[in-house]
Amino acid sequence: SSELTQDPAVSVALGQTVRITCQGDSLRSYYASWYQQKPGQAPVLVIYGKNNRPSGIPDRFSGSSSGNTASLTITGAQAEDEADYYCNSRDSSGNPWVFGGGTKLTVL
Amino acid sequence: EVQLVESGGGLVKPGGSLRLSCAASGFTFSSYSMNWVRQAPGKGLEWVSSISSSSSYIYYADSVKGRFTISRDNAKNSLYLQMNSLRAEDTAVYYCARPILWGDAFDIWGQGTMVTVSS
Question: Is the pLDDT confidence value at A95 over 90?
């Protein structure tokens, strides 16, 4: 099965812009989706497809992709954005789905 | 309201069995493939198993293949995960998750049910 690689931790100053990346071979064929998870809660989808936000997700969240790397950008990070973020995509080598290891975002 | 509600988690001894259920409401359950995703304490998300809308296609992660069985009952709007030969490393919160129809993301998640495998 494929793997998706994320940086374990990223920090950003309040109000600044942060990019969280996800690398993997499957991303050459499929878009990544991104999930926000706060402690004790289920994951919440924030970005899917080329750059789509589900209803209720602030427009400071955006997604992009190039080659084998997908990125989640938060423009003007807020304190409530502090959370774990996971990428996910279809798997190009057998299993239907694969998740990244997650990135812990700290808002300073 | 679109909702998924898991149940059936608990404490089980190594080698034991447990059956998880996921009750769906607020959408046409029979139109969607469904999935189980788990998260070990302090760890990341791990896809466990998928089942197509009509149960024709079923997939498992290598870590559970041969021990877990996914199934569904479209008449009851329910998804199941039969877990046998449980190991300590199966300890996790188990989520059922619905993918976007014709899409590549999980837009609806249940609240999760905790499975603890310990003697």
Answer: no
Binned at pLDDT 50, 70 and 90, residue B65 comes out as: very high
Q: What residues are paired with B80 via a beta bridge?
A: B21, B71
What is the percentage of chain B residues whose pLDDT exceeds 90? 97
- CA atoms A2, A45, A31, A107: torsion sign: negative
CB nearest to B44's CB, from A30, A96, A99: A99
Taking the CA atoms of chain B, what radius of gyration do you get in angstroms? 13
Sign of the Cα torsion B17, B38, B50, B109 reads positive
Chain B contact for A26, CB < 8 A? no
Assigned token pair, A84: 């774990």
- Extract the tokens encoding B1: 């309201």
Please tell me the predicted confidence (pLDDT) of residue A94: 77
Query: Which among A33, A35, A99 has the least Cβ separation from residue B47?
Result: A99
DSSP sequence for A15-77: TS-EEEEEE-GGGGTS--EEEEE-TTS--EEEEBTTTB--TT--TTEEEEEETTEEEEEESS-
